[in-house]
Every structure is written in C-alpha cells, then in structure tokens.
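Progress note, project year one: complex with zinc ion.
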Amino acid sequence: MNLVNGDSAEYWKSAREEKLLFQKCSHCGQVQFPPRYHCAACWQAEPDWIESSGRGTVESFTIVRRAPLPAFRDKVPYVVASVIVEEGPRMIAAITGDNALDVKIGDAVTVDFQPTDEGETLPVFRPL
Ligand SMILES: [Zn+2]
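Model obtained:
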C-alpha cells in the first residue's frame, strides 16, 4: 500500500524526521489534516505547512482484540483512538506504550513515531 501522494509527500517526509506537520491556510487560517491540495474551508490552493506541538487529547478510542488481517495477529490487543491535536485537527491513530490499554477519553497524549512495514514512518500517540 502506497501512503504517499503529491499532496502528502511533505507530511510523510517530515514524519520520517519525527516531525508532525499540518497544513495551515494563508488565506483563512484553517489548520487541516489530512493534507490536501487546497484548503477545505475556503478552497485556497497550496496551504502552508506548520509543525504541530504533537500534544493532543483522546476524544474516543477502541481496543482491537481480534486481528482484522493476518499481519496484525502479533499486534493485538491494540488501541486505535481519535485524537484532537492542539492545533485543531483530529487524527485517527494508534495509542502506544506499556499503559496504552488503560487509555481513557480526555487523556493527554503526545505524538510518537513508528516505522511501517512499507518503509514509511507513522505518527502514533502515547499517554503523557
Ligand atoms: Zn482557507
């Protein structure tokens, strides 16, 4: 599976450097994720890039106990969460760390980075 396209190349490049980037519209100020060619609020082309603090709050989560694919068998149980990041965007990402299964709605988390089987680096979050 190829995660990278023209709109997201900068995002994935920065993730490999363990930086979380969002796009910010120079016209209306909207901060957005995932990356797109235009601002989803005002349609201005080519939003700027900003680096996120990486801090966020768990909005919701689920614990996956049955692997959806054979490749996930050695990863269960794991947590997938909706995280509202400080700059505003919502990300669906894994919660990692020794206490990941104890996560609660409202918990403070910070970004971390994990290599994927495809050779990319995936932003994940760990409890603070
Ligand atoms: Zn805009």
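The chain has one domain: 9-127.
The longest helix spans residues 9-16.
No further modelling is planned for this target in the current period.
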